[in-house]
Every structure is written in C-alpha cells, then in structure tokens.
UniProtKB/TrEMBL annotation:
Its cofactor is Ca(2+). Residues 187-284 form the Glycoside hydrolase family 2 immunoglobulin-like beta-sandwich domain. Residues 290-505 form the Glycoside hydrolase family 2 catalytic domain. Gene3D superfamilies: 2.70.98.10, Galactose-binding domain-like (2.60.120.260), Glycosidases (3.20.20.80), Immunoglobulins (2.60.40.10). This is beta-galactosidase. Residues 51-184 form the Glycosyl hydrolases family 2 sugar binding domain. It catalyses: Hydrolysis of terminal non-reducing beta-D-galactose residues in beta-D-galactosides. Its EC number is 3.2.1.23. Monomer. It comes from the Bacteria. Residues 1-18 form the signal peptide.
C-alpha cells in the first residue's frame, strides 16, 4: 500500500463517524515505518539521478548528499536540495470536505506542489508542523501527484542562523511524517486548553464555517464520562468560542502522577453533529513566584532534568514513538523528572510519552547563538504552540538558546498560550530565572545563597568524555536541594550524538569531540554516570549508614518526592555473601513519610544477619520500578581476608640472601625482593613466571624504604624495613607464609598536604591482561567526585581499551579506578594471580585510560590524573573535570585529597595491608 487511511476523533465509544477528522498518511509514521517516494538529490552522493527514498528520513542516512556538522565551513552545502515525488489517491467522498496536507517537519525549506500547482508559499524552518489547504488542487477518486522540493539550507538567513549554524549535526529531508486531513467545511480548526488543579476548565475553540452549538464532554483514563456535559451556543459567524466548566476533585497531572483525561468537542448545526475532535490533557496549574520558586499544583518543584535532541544513529533526526518511549523510560529510570527540548521542538509522540509517563518539559524554539527574524519567528512560534500547547507535560517555553533569543517574540508565547506558562531564555537571566550555563560550583552556589533570582541552569555538568554528568553532581545537587531559590537544572545531555556514516562503511561519527556527549551512548549504552545520577537523584534519599554489630535494622530516610508519600513505595532487602548462592530475602513496610519530611525505615532482619557479608536494600516506586539498590557492607575487608587467605602449609620456607636480593621460596613460589628497596623484582612458581613486579612504589609520596632485615616468626619469614624519621619514614614489611601467600604491610606518608592521589603502584605489561574478577563496588570505574552509583558484589570485567564517548562504546570501561576493593583475581595470558585487601576503602587502579592528555580537549579541563605504573592500590584518587570545569571547580569532592593529619610519626602514617597469591590458582 502506498498510503493508509485512519480516523482521529472520538474513539472512546469504539465508533468512528463521518464527523471525525479523517487522516490519510502519505509517508510512514516514523523511522520504524516508512514509505518509499521518488527522490532526486542535487548534490553530494548519488546526486543527479531519480531513485527512491524512505519517507520520513534524513537523506544523508539514506545514502544521499553530504554529512555536515554545524561548525562546517563548507559553503557548497547550501546548494544541496532534495526533490520528492509521490502519487496518491483520495476518496471521492472527500470532495465536499476541506483537505489539508500536513508536514510534521522538513529540513529546511519546503516548496510544495499538488498536480503541478503550488500549494502555497515556501515554508522556512525545519522543526515545525505546517499545512496547506489543497482542497481545490486535488483530483478526487483519481491519482494525484505530490511534488516537494526541500532545500537543506534556507533561503532565509535568520533560519540558517537559528537552525543551521549550530552545535549539532545538520541533516536534510522530510524527516517527520506527512499526511492528509479531511475535515467538514464547518469544523473545529484549533483549540487551546487550560485545565487547572482546582478543577476549572477553559478552552478557546476556533471555528471555520457555520455552527450553532458546541458540546464538551471530558472522559477519564478508563473512558468513562467525567463531570457533566457542557453545551454552549455558537453565535452566527463566530470564529471562536470559549468553553468553561468546573470539575470536582480531578486527579492531577504531575511528573510523579501523570493522570490524563480526554476532552471531546462536538460541533453541531440544526441538531446534527458536523465535527468532533478529541484531545488528551491533564489538570494542573503552573505558577512562578518571583524570588521563590516554580510551583506546579501549588507545590514547589525542582528540575532533575536533562537536555535531549531528537536523534538516532542510523536515522538522524527521524525517530519513532518506540524510541521516544525508550528515551523517557531511561530518563525516568535515572530518577529524572524533567527534560529540555534542546534546541528545537521534538516529535509530537515524544511529548505524548512525556504526558503519559510523566516528565516536566521545557519546549524550545530553535535558536543556537542566532535567532529567527521577527516575521519568520512569529509564524514559527504560532506553529510550535498550535502543535504542542495542549501537552500538560510542558511547563516552560524557551525562546532560543545561548543568545539566540529574539526578544520581540516573547509576547507571542503569552499571546497564544492561554495557560500563560513561563518563557525562559536559556543562558540568560530572564523572567525571574537565572539560567547561566556551566557555572563552576563556587559561583553557582554563591548565586544560590546570595542572589535574588531563581537559579536553574538549563545546561550544567557537560558530559564530555567520562565524569561530566555524574562528577560533581552530588555536590551540586545537595546545594540545589537545600537552597530555596534553586529550581534545579538540566544536564547536558542525554545521548551521544554519533551518526552512522553511510559514506564511511557505517562507522559511528561524533565529529571528533563536537557531537553532544551523553549519559548514554548512541544506541543507549549506559555510562558510569547513569548510575551515579540514579543514586544522587533518588527520591528516596538514604541517610548515610554504617552497618555494625549494633545495627538494629533502621535507616533514616528523607522523602525527596514532591507529591508522593513514601508509603506508596515498597522496599525489599537481601542478605548475601558474594560468591555463595545461599541468601536471605525479605520486605519492609514502607513508612508514612510525607514529601520533604524525614522518617525511619525498619528492616525486620533475622538473627543470623551477621553471617552474611552484604545487605542490599532496594526501593521501588509507586509504578513498581526500581528507584535504586543500595549495598551496605556487613563484613569488612579484614574479615573477608581472613577467610580467603591461606597462611598455612606443610613445607618449610627457604630464604637465600645475596648481595642485592632476597630469594624466598614457599610452596614452589619463588620471590625475589630487592634487598635495598624491598620491592618485588620477580615472582615465579612451578608453572612459570608471574609478571607483577616493581612494587610497591609510593604515589604521591617518596619510596624510601630501607634497612631491610629478615627473620623467621612462627614458621613464616618476615622481611622488614627500618623506620627513620628523616630518611626512611615510610616502612614496608613482607610476610611470606608456607602456603605461598605473602602479605604486604605498608606504613607511608603523603608527599604533601594536598595530593592528587595516594597509594602504591606495581608494574604489569598491559598486553598480558585478559580480565579481572573482583569483589568491590562496580562494575563501573569511579572518580573522587563520582563515587556513587555502584554496587558491592563480585564483578567480572574483560579487558577493553574503551574510552567514554568514543567508538566502540563498550561499557563498562576496563581501565581506571575501581572502588572498595576486597579482592581481585587478575586473569592473564599466562597464570592468574590474586590480591586481597585487609584495608578498608582501597581503590583498585587498572592501567591508564586513553584520554590522559588528549589534544582534542581544547578546553583543557578534562584532567585525567593517574599515578605511574600499571596496577595500583590507592587510598586516595583524583577527581575528573568536565568540558567546561576543571575537577576542582566541580565542588569539594573534585578537590585534591587533604592530608593535614599525617605527620612523619609511625602512629600517624597511612596503613595498607594487602595479600598476594602467586600460586597460579
């Protein structure tokens, strides 16, 4: 079939009548359903010949034209056009109707002809639905020819300034659906809704033709009539009519409770219904209180938001409802409650999903450092609001972005929107909101605490490479949450914008580091920050809790929902010893804690709870989806080490002292220690060599172990350095057990009061590593300013050379810092070896990620900081910067480690105890 005929109208009763708007799709409905049209591209790949193309689509992704990123200087791209042809028929019965052809979006200028005749003026602007009345151009009951010429770049300089000279991929084509709508000559042409939290309902209904009555009926989500039917008179010749009604105790729409209703408007004349339309809506009230906050339904709310482009790697700006659902579900899974439509209006189905699943939306007129002229902008603002205004999820309008604001357009939003939702200028202070982008922590917090405007950065914590979204978020959010003038903020941005290059064998191209860098990869691969955000933005906020033998099962909770009582959630717990199948599970009664209040959650733990190593606590929201799972260690590393380390053995230990080394043999394992420095030089066993060597070397500090002596103690051999306050204040002790295990006991001092990191390194050839299996917080790597989001368990990680935001988008990354190591088994190309920590809070460092001093980091803020060597065991690690902030300006957690209390006295040193098993088991 070339096209399909559907009906939009009163479907609630299960009957479609001739009075409903009839819709016939000429294209497909999205990226997952397309229709082939004839196509001719004037430039680039496959130019100069007629062929076919899927509609809707971006023609670059279909093998035509030239890929361009917004910063491209290639002026020839402006000549690229696409010529479309499509043949279709319409029912003969439509001859007495008004027929519009509707384009949901075409990039960028679209000139439309029907049967060789112009449908109207060229439409300029890519992201807006537009229509033409083609009633007089059609051949009813016969074949018709649609011709569309789409210019990739606009003839209007202001459209190019607003849309094409921008920081995102530039595509061409009819990228959203195209359809016909057939309406009676007397019909409802447009409506504007305002349904408030107090149950008041108002609608401005615009009419064409003559009618004498309008009837309004609201239905609930089950399709049952809600409230009474309204019937109003329509004066002769009236072009609009107001409908006003009062409803009792409606269920309110919020991001937490997305209750929806439907309204049906029926237009009649002389007792006969002539047209019906149906629209979903929600009862809710949006109010801005200057120098106070943003209120929805009388409740002050804060945006836990993210920026989102309409994008998919293989289809560009052409998406589908299923992709919209996936995007919103991922955002909700991260405990977000808001999304900003940067930097243009989205597909209608995305807003539908925000309505039904619950997200606050900032809908945005395009404009990235450039803006539409007033004539063009006036038309596009009207098109945007006519298309989007009925969505209850939209609580803000944004007039452009980062200087792309035409102030003459501001009043148009309030003119068309009877709800009078606030208008924002992202990157400016406007209408009581201070929305500056990428503020450093101290400046931002200073504005929260000392300014007068509501602070709501519409972009913050840029996601370039690793860290940007999660690194610093805990610091920022705690201040945002507790400060009355904070209205939250929006992270930049949701997904990596990597496009499939059909001209380069299908590689995914992010235009180096220009493409937006998200929390998820191009195909929704989850980065480490995904889980950090999920924990930091959890509406069930767990007060920090240490599990000790005195633990009584109680947790302090703060309710960070805005509308939901904690008693609408549910809680489940699990006791587990990782690596052992046996576990205990149970549930806990959700306490009665109102939004913004604190209370206690009591877990009815069994008497045997201390026999397990980890307690997991999971909170589920009213939708029965996981909010977050917290893991609490019961057994500390020292206790686990006692069980895991074998210190016994039947055979004797031998030690041979040479001029420069100690050669120690235990249970076929042979160790060579440097006699002067105490470092391991080599290890072997009966199966061959082990490759870990040259450690421990202190970082950042001095490796000044000296004066080594040895002796036998209870069947073990102990090699010990001598303490000297001036020359060898760091001390190292090796204990070799008859089993072949060895123990490293280290007392050491930081080199300065402020350190990037502190710990010890060993050498290991990276090419020989295959994988690690470890008990610790995982599976993602961490930074000092991004520690949240992990779970304490046994994790297996195969080696990869991945770097965040770069091809091949394989997560979790192997290299980097890993938190709360209890033990690690290193799986190599040769023999495995195991390291066990008896010290709490040790970080495992695995090699050095690729982007250490990346020349592409033109902002010089990324600052990957790692010690020397290859494998390290750290007691302090560094933070990471973002594209726009150095690590130390993301907040206190991003600053260097502070070691004031450590003086060069034995009892004030840092201590680290590690056990090594080189037996190859």
């Amino acid at each position: 079939m070339k096209h399909c005929l559907v009906y939009i109208g009163l479907l609630l009763a299960g009957v479609v009548t001739a009075q409903d708007t009839q819709v016939q799709y000429l294209s497909g409905t999205g990226s997952d359903h397309t229709v082939d049209w004839q196509f001719y591209c004037t430039g680039g790949r496959n130019a100069g010949k007629w062929t076919t193309i899927a509609v809707p689509s971006c023609w670059e992704l279909q093998g035509f034209g030239k890929y361009d990123y917004g910063f491209s200087k290639d002026t020839a791209r402006g000549k690229e056009q696409g010529l479309y042809k499509y043949s279709f028929t319409v029912p003969a019965g439509w001859k007495e109707k008004k027929v519009n052809i509707v384009f949901e979006g075409a990039m960028t200028d679209a000139t439309v002809k029907i049967n060789g005749r112009s449908a109207g003026a060229t439409h300029e602007g890519a992201f807006y639905a537009f229509k033409y009345d083609i009633s007089k151009l059609l051949k009813y009951g016969k074949e018709n020819l649609l011709e569309v010429t789409v210019a990739k770049h606009s003839a209007n300089a202001s459209v190019n300034a607003a849309e094409r000279k921008a920081d995102f991929w530039l595509f061409g084509g009819i990228f959203r659906p195209v359809f016909l709508e057939a309406l009676p000559q007397q019909h409802i042409s447009q409506y504007w809704l305002d349904a408030k939290a107090d149950g008041s309902f108002a609608a401005k209904v615009q009419l064409q033709g003559d009618a004498d009555k309008i009837t309004t009926q609201v239905y609930d989500a089950a399709g049952k009539p809600f409230g009474s039917t309204y019937t109003g008179e329509v004066k002769a010749g009236a072009k609009e009519v107001w409908v006003k009604q009062q409803y009792q105790q409606p269920l309110l729409w919020t991001a937490e409770t997305p209750h929806l209703y439907s309204v049906v408007f029926s237009l009649s004349k002389n007792g006969k219904t002539i047209h019906k339309v149906s629209q979903r809506f929600g009862f809710r009230t949006v109010e801005v209180k200057l120098r106070d906050g943003m209120y929805v339904n009388g409740v002050k709310v804060k945006m836990k938001g993210v920026n989102r482009h309409s994008f998919w790697p293989s289809t560009g700006r052409t998406t589908s409802k299923q992709l919209s659902i996936e995007d919103v579900l991922l955002m909700k899974d991260m405990n977000m409650n808001a999304v900003r439509m940067s930097h243009y209006p989205p597909d209608g189905h995305f807003l539908d999903v925000c309505d039904s699943l619950g997200l606050f939306v900032m809908d945005e007129l395009a404009g990235w450092h450039g803006n539409y002229d007033t004539r063009t902008g006036t038309k596009l603002v009207q098109e945007m609001l006519e298309h989007d205004a009925h969505h209850p999820s939209i609580i803000f309008w944004a007039n452009g972005n980062e200087g792309g604001h035409n102030l003459e357009l501001d009043t148009l939003f309030t003119h068309w929107d009877i709800q009078q939702r606030p208008v924002i200028h992202p990157w400016q202070t406007f209408s009581g909101f201070e929305t500056q982008h990428y503020r450093d922590f101290n400046y931002g917090i200073g504005e929260f605490e000392n300014g007068h405007n509501m602070v709501m950065p519409t972009e913050f914590l840029h996601g370039m490479y690793d860290g940007g979204h999660g690194a610093g978020l805990d610091d920022y959010w705690e201040h945002m949450w507790h400060n009355p003038l904070s209205a939250g903020g929006f992270l930049w941005d949701f997904a990596d914008e990597g496009v499939v290059r059909t001209d380069k064998n299908g590689i995914i191209d992010t235009d180096e580091n220009h493409g937006p860098d998200g929390i998820v990869g191009p195909h929704h691969e989850k980065e480490g920050s995904y889980f950090t955000i999920k924990e930091v933005w959890s509406p069930v906020h767990m007060e920090r809790r240490e599990i000790t033998p005195a633990f009584d099962g109680r947790f302090m909770i703060e309710n960070r929902y805005f509308y939901t009582n904690i008693n609408q959630c549910r809680f489940a717990w699990k006791l587990k010893t990782p690596g052992i199948q046996q576990q205990l599970t149970g549930t806990a009664v959700a306490p009665d804690i109102a939004p913004g209040a604190k209370g206690t959650l009591a877990i009815p733990l069994p008497q045997s709870w201390q026999q397990y190593d980890v307690l997991y606590l999971t909170a589920y929201g009213p939708d029965n989806k996981e909010i977050f799972t917290w893991s609490y260690p019961i057994a500390l590393p020292e206790q686990v080490a006692v069980r895991k380390v074998d210190t016994t053995g039947a055979g004797p230990i031998t030690l041979v002292e040479y001029d420069s080394t100690f050669l120690v043999t235990a249970n076929t394992v042979e160790f060579i220690f440097n006699k002067r420095t105490g470092l391991i030089q080599a290890v072997s066993n009966g199966k061959g060599k082990q490759l870990l060597s040259n450690g421990p070397i202190v970082q950042q500090g001095v490796t000044n172990f000296s004066g080594f002596t040895w002796k036998q103690e209870g069947g073990n051999v102990v090699i010990r350095s001598k303490f000297d306050r001036k020359s060898s204040y760091n001390t190292l002790e090796w204990t070799i057990y008859p089993s072949g295990w060895i123990k490293m006991k280290l007392h050491y001092f930081p080199g300065d009061y402020f350190t990037d990191f502190i710990g010890v390194n060993f050498s290991f050839p990276e090419k020989e590593i295959k994988a690690v299996e470890y008990l610790g917080k995982g599976p993602y790597r961490v930074w000092k300013n991004r520690l949240k989001g992990g779970a304490l368990d046994i994790w297996h990680k195969d080696y990869n050379n991945s770097e965040t935001g770069e091809v091949p988008f394989v997560y979790p990354e192997f290299k980097g810092y890993h938190a709360n190591m209890y033990w690690t088994k290193f799986i190599t190309t040769g023999q495995p070896f195991t390291v066990v920590s008896a010290t709490e809070d040790v970080f495992l460092r695995l090699f050095t990620p690729l982007v250490k001093d990346d020349p592409k980091d033109t902002w010089k803020n990324l600052q990957y900081v790692f010690p020397g060597g290859d494998i390290s065991f750290m007691q302090g690690i560094s933070g990471v910067g973002t594209k726009t902030q150095k690590r130390e300006t993301t907040g206190p957690q991003g600053m260097k480690n502070i070691m004031y209390d450590y003086e060069k006295e034995p009892l004030r040193a840092l201590e680290m105890i590690l056990y090594f098993d080189f037996r190859g088991e």
